[in-house]
Write a structure and sequence with these properties.
- There is one protein chain.
- With 784 residues, the chain is mainly α.
- The chain has a 5-stranded antiparallel β-sheet with strand order 4-5-1-9-8. Strands 3-2-6-7 form a 4-stranded antiparallel β-sheet, with no helix packed on it.
- The C terminus is likely disordered.
Length: 784
């Protein structure tokens, strides 16, 4: 006898079975993260939900609710529900920890509570019944399921790998790392950016706000940054799929973005760690708006989201102007090739206005807060009108031949002191014998030794103004720099000073000597962008700084970077010889001998039945294997380190016998003891060092072929516009940094290029998609 359950009962039981399987996956993954990866319980709970999401979605859709409606709409609704569940679980876990509950019990209780509420939402909103008998359509969605599973697996693995990397706690870096967490600490404490001083408003509040938000929710900084970046890659991959309709291209792009090597170089507390995610989010939201317009919707929500992130980006880095040409291309081409008509044009204009308005929200809030607390309505005092005007005015003055990389040399300062009483107040500090700000520039640009290099003069100028007492308040410092700008500009206009026009605000002018290095500078950026010899060097934490513990706890107690591993060659083994004979190390480049430390060797004594050999083992570290050797037998026997090609081989002379157990370089020994995230970073470095040059070359070829084909057909593919946009953004970022590199300080650094690495990957993949789209049978979209 067969018992057939009523449909509502069957659905509830199937829901419990599917949910139970998902709950087991969630619980297993969460406990593994807590006990083996060392993740905080709220982070483990959040990622646990995400890991089970694709599998449980398929089970609920096909087994429990037998839903045959649109895959994307139901999956989007399901994801929205689960993300809300994950956030609720994280908050519940944090609340449970406050009550003193054990982590295991906490995770179980919070997960069970959410399961009870999910059924009602799924049955009434996510999986509403529909009679779709097209089984072929259901079969055709199987590749999508596989793609979703692969994307989820890649996302979870990359987040865990990136979040587990050690971070250098540079608590003494008052102009960089320490400045960001101290401002965030003040925000959490309700004091906005803290008491006003020369450093308070020197940078934007975008990254401190992010740090404060992560701290408020109990999310460690490394996890917050990794989750933000992973979300941006997923959103962009989805946008590429919506526009281009190529599932596997979108999946490959998503995975390539998630594992790109610059994401594994977030080893410090710097604002550049989030700029890549911000740029990808802006691009993805505009692309989603384009897809919505193409589908007959207005896409205002996506445009508003793009504007909000753009405003956040502007508050994070003040040089964000390099994004504007690329965004202009997207907007001027009708948002990636949307067909034009009267209604669509109005929607496009409305969306652009909505984006512009949303972009002003966060900057407006920050400027209002600065006005309220410091009496100055500006994002930073570094780029406010008075300071920028004073610096630009000083950099206009010329006396004799220009000095490369020195925007305001000593001979210029001496002349300006005579024309500007306000600037003359800074002479005691700027001309002090110590001149502390001259040393950093001298270390990297020897031609500037003894004077202020471009990247450091502005800091010297600020410190000198502070020593003169002008930073008592924002208004007083504003008035002082305005007076300097007025006096210097008046002297220029009257002909008392020889001045040249300003080219780029805040950047010193370039002479012919500096322009000659443009090729060398461009080659350096190209090698770094292709990840050739681009290995992020570990920076030791400021272990002796009194604020390091506070900083470490505020950012969520991540794994802390220690000193760099010992380099050189470490040799160990044993030696047996006549009394008084003992080996030593010698290197031609060194002074004196390297002592061999004696160690207990009961095994050697037992083997030779010689109690005198009980301290015959040794260990020594050589600075390298070049021109270094082991010497014994009163100097008559020499074993060069370079000749030791295998261990376990004895070396002897007369009664003296040397046996090498191990000879390992410091880098090899350190690599063997690296934690899993660092080993993953090494593997990613090696893979992308090979892949990025090939990807770039083929991407440029695909872009050229797609452009030629599109020009001949008078047509423009949607992904072609994305490729144009991202190549343009990449060129603008590199061009801006090259100007800085040629005029001020070495700018070919990984953290400055953080947005460029994902843009390069997106540009290459969009070029592939554009070429494939033009070769497909479907007619491309006419160009705007």
């Amino acid at each position: 006898m067969t018992v057939r359950l009523a449909e509502p009962t069957r659905r509830k039981l199937a829901f419990l079975v599917a949910g139970g399987c998902g709950f087991l996956l969630y619980n297993l993954f969460s406990q593994l993260l807590v006990h083996f990866a060392g993740a905080p319980p709220e982070v483990a709970a959040f990622l646990g939900v995400l890991s089970a999401m694709p599998i449980v979605f398929l089970m609920q859709r096909n087994f429990a609710f037998r839903h045959r409606g649109g895959l994307y709409r139901s999956f989007a609704a399901y994801c929205g529900l689960q993300l809300l569940n994950a956030a609720c679980i994280a908050l519940m876990v944090r609340f449970g920890r406050g009550l003193g509950l054990a982590d295991e019990v906490n995770i179980l209780a919070s997960g069970a509570t959410i399961v009870v509420l999910s059924y009602l939402v799924m049955s009434r909103l996510v999986f509403r019944s529909a009679d779709d008998k097209d089984d072929a359509a259901r079969i055709s969605t199987r590749p999508r399921y596989l793609a979703l599973g692969l994307a989820a697996a890649s996302t979870i693995a990359s987040v865990v790998a990136i979040a587990g990397l050690p971070v250098s706690m540079l608590a003494g870096a008052g102009h960089d790392d320490a400045w960001f967490w101290q401002r965030a600490e003040s925000i959490v404490g309700g004091a906005w950016l803290g008491a006003y001083d020369p450093l308070t408003l020197m940078k934007g509040a975008g990254y401190p706000l992010f740090l404060a938000l992560a701290h408020t929710f109990g999310l460690p900084l490394t996890w917050a940054q990794a989750l933000l970046y992973a979300s941006a890659t997923l959103l962009l991959g989805w946008a590429v799929h919506r526009l281009g309709g190529r599932l596997w291209l979108a999946l490959a792009l998503t995975i390539a973005l998630q594992w790109q090597p610059a994401a594994f170089a977030w080893g410090r507390v710097l604002r550049d760690n989030i700029t890549a995610a911000q740029v990808l989010l802006i691009l993805a939201c505009v692309m989603h708006a384009a897809a919505s317009l193409r589908d007959g919707r207005r896409g205002l929500g996506w445009m508003a989201a793009a504007g909000l992130v753009a405003g956040w980006f502007w508050c994070t880095r003040e040089d964000s102007v390099w994004l504007l040409p690329g965004l202009a291309i997207l907007l001027c081409t009708g948002l990636t090739g949307v067909r034009h008509g009267g209604a669509t044009t109005r929607r496009l204009a409305l969306g652009a206005a909505c984006m512009a308005a949303a972009a002003g929200v966060l900057p407006g809030v920050v400027m209002a807060a600065n006005q309220l607390h410091y009496g100055m309505s500006a994002l930073t005092d570094m780029h406010r009108s008075a300071f920028a005007a004073a610096l630009s005015a000083l950099q206009r003055v010329r006396v004799g031949e220009t000095v490369p990389y020195v925007p305001v040399p000593a001979k210029v300062r001496q002349v300006v002191y005579q024309q500007s009483p306000a600037f003359a107040r800074l002479a005691p500090a700027l001309e002090d014998a110590a001149k502390g700000w001259t040393r950093p520039g001298c270390a990297v640009l020897p031609v500037t030794c003894g004077d202020y290099a471009g990247g450091w003069f502005l800091w010297a100028l600020r410190d000198a103004a502070a020593s003169a007492g002008t930073y008592a308040s924002a208004s007083s410092s504003e008035a002082f720099f305005a007076q300097v700008a007025t006096e210097v500009s008046a002297a220029c206009d009257a002909g008392r000073l020889r001045c040249v026009p300003v080219t780029v605000p805040l950047l010193p002018g370039l002479d012919q000597f500096q322009w000659q290095d443009a090729g060398k500078s461009g080659a350096g950026f190209a090698r770094l962008l292709l990840w050739q010899d681009a290995r992020p060097l570990p920076v030791a934490s400021h272990a002796d700084h009194p604020g390091i513990t506070r900083m470490w706890r505020f950012v969520g107690e991540p794994s802390m970077a220690g000193p760099p591993p010992v380099t050189g060659v470490r040799v160990s083994g044993w030696f047996r010889g006549p009394e008084g004979d003992w080996p030593e190390g010698r290197c031609e480049a060194g002074n004196g001998a390297l002592p061999f430390e004696r160690r207990p060797s009961p095994d050697v004594a037992e083997h030779f039945n010689d109690p005198g050999a009980a301290m015959s083992r040794f260990e020594v570290t050589f600075p390298g294997d070049d021109d270094c050797a082991i010497v014994f037998a009163a100097g008559q026997a020499t074993v060069p380190l370079a000749s030791i090609d295998q261990v376990g081989m004895p070396f002897g002379l007369g009664e003296s016998q040397l046996f090498i157990d191990a000879a390992r370089s410091g880098s090899e020994e350190a690599a063997s003891n690296l934690p899993a995230p660092l080993r993953a970073r090494q593997a990613v470095d090696a893979l992308y060092a090979m892949a990025l040059p090939l990807l770039t070359a083929t991407g440029l070829f695909a872009f050229a072929a797609a452009s030629l084909t599109g020009w001949r057909r008078k047509r423009l593919d949607a992904l072609h516009v994305v490729a144009i946009t991202t190549w343009c953004m990449l060129a603008c970022r590199i061009g801006l940094l090259m100007l800085v590199d040629l005029s001020s300080f070495p700018a070919a650094k990984i953290h400055y290029l953080q947005p460029a690495f994902p843009l390069l990957i997106v540009a290459a993949f969009a070029s592939f998609g554009a070429l494939l789209g033009l070769r497909a049978s479907a007619p491309p979209v006419p160009a705007a």
